[in-house]
Amino acid sequence: MAFCNKNVPSSSSSSSSSSSNHFPMLGLLSLLLLHPTTTSSPFASAIRVVTIQKPTSDDIPSFREAPAFRNGDSCSSRNIDKIQIVMPVDANYIRGTMAAVLSILQHSTCPENASFHFLSIHLEPEIISLINSTFPYLNYKIYHFHPNRVRGMISKSIRQALDQPLNYARIYLSDILPTDVHRVIYLDSDIIVVDDIAKLWRVDLEDKILAAPEYCHANFTTYFTDTFWSDVNLAKTFEGRRPCYFNTGVMVMDLDGWRKGGYTQKIEEWMVIQKHKRIYQLGSLPPVLLVFAGNIKAVDHRWNQHGLGGDNFEGKCRGLHPGPISLLHWSGKGKPWLRLDARKPCTIDHLWAPYDLYRSSRVALEE
Ligand SMILES: *[C@@H]1O[C@H](CO)[C@@H](O)[C@H](O)[C@H]1NC(C)=O
Ligand SMILES: *[C@@H]1O[C@H](CO)[C@@H](O)[C@H](O)[C@H]1NC(C)=O
Ligand SMILES: *[C@@H]1O[C@H](CO)[C@@H](O)[C@H](O)[C@H]1NC(C)=O
């Protein structure tokens, strides 16, 4: 999620590529790996060339109205839960958020029982009226996430879009949402759900705070720097658990348990350590891994086919992983709406296109 300079097209990825023209990102990365503590090197500060500006209404596109999705007969039962879904919303990613909401409603047995909680930094009235007009029947609330919450705690990562304050809002849900919201599904804006979200909602968390697909074959070592692994005290962090990578773009969260355990503060402590010693290269993901990896409830991989946006540098096309799919996630640099607009879509982007409600889209859902 990112707000970027109006001089560059409305994409966070293009702002990071504009800086990489001056300092090739791979070169910078190896520089940081060689000197992990020199975060204030002249190179590191020099790549902060893009200023963050509040987008104007010119940047906010227009969308077609989604149909009214109605509950199936089975939804009148007393056992039906209200499904609480949290998503970030901002001017740059609004097209993704709208497509994601449409995909969730369209595949739900009880769409009227889905409740959305949107997180926004600027609370633009244009965005709110856009949600109103696109989804007139949507049950939603929008909350302000103040970037001061994370000011001074964000460390520069390998991709500028990852450094936007709104990316960190997921760590503060226990404070932002009212205390009568006990459990939520957190979803990034660059996802499409192609199954009934109620199946994910009903996961048995057992005694865990988070549920997400786990990837135990991924090399976990690579998510942290040598500084981290070579420090005896830091490396002890994972003692007694088998840490596996998971993606924080799709999580079921027990907010009551999170509040009780004070997990926001535990994650913030890692963000402060990161400020002093460079212990990881990515944005909001590694501090969450430090606290939770190896201690989450694993759900089926079908709930997060991630990485469809390619890697963090080029956003190359990728194929699907084998197996059934309930949720597609364009994490990585490439976003399907940008690649479709540039007429350079990847094959998988055609799976996103039917959910695009953007008005001028030529590949949008037939009305
Ligand atoms: C689900 O939606 C139906 C129809 O709007 C409503 O009658 C019912 O109370 C809702 N259930 C919950 C738990 O929100
Ligand atoms: C959006 O809809 C809500 C609920 O109907 C209403 O209270 C709010 O004023 C609307 N906001 C805008 C900006 O249209
Ligand atoms: C995992 O990555 C680390 C650091 O890059 C490397 O030293 C190690 O050999 C890798 N382990 C495996 C099993 O590939």
TrEMBL record:
<keyword id="KW-0735">Signal-anchor</keyword>
<comment type="pathway">
    <text>Glycan metabolism; pectin biosynthesis.</text>
</comment>
<dbReference type="GO" id="GO:0016757">
    <property type="term" value="F:glycosyltransferase activity"/>
</dbReference>
<keyword id="KW-1133">Transmembrane helix</keyword>
<keyword id="KW-0812">Transmembrane</keyword>
<keyword id="KW-0328">Glycosyltransferase</keyword>
<dbReference type="InterPro" id="IPR002495">
    <property type="entry name" value="Glyco_trans_8"/>
</dbReference>
<feature type="signal peptide">
    <location>
        <begin position="1"/>
        <end position="40"/>
    </location>
</feature>
<keyword id="KW-0808">Transferase</keyword>
<keyword id="KW-0472">Membrane</keyword>
<feature type="compositionally biased region" description="Low complexity">
    <location>
        <begin position="10"/>
        <end position="20"/>
    </location>
</feature>
<dbReference type="GO" id="GO:0005794">
    <property type="term" value="C:Golgi apparatus"/>
</dbReference>
<dbReference type="InterPro" id="IPR029044">
    <property type="entry name" value="Nucleotide-diphossugar_trans"/>
</dbReference>
<keyword id="KW-0732">Signal</keyword>
<dbReference type="InterPro" id="IPR050748">
    <property type="entry name" value="Glycosyltrans_8_dom-fam"/>
</dbReference>
<keyword id="KW-0325">Glycoprotein</keyword>
<comment type="similarity">
    <text>Belongs to the glycosyltransferase 8 family.</text>
</comment>
<protein>
    <recommendedName>
        <fullName>Hexosyltransferase</fullName>
        <ecNumber>2.4.1.-</ecNumber>
    </recommendedName>
</protein>
<feature type="region of interest" description="Disordered">
    <location>
        <begin position="1"/>
        <end position="20"/>
    </location>
</feature>
<dbReference type="Pfam" id="PF01501">
    <property type="entry name" value="Glyco_transf_8"/>
</dbReference>
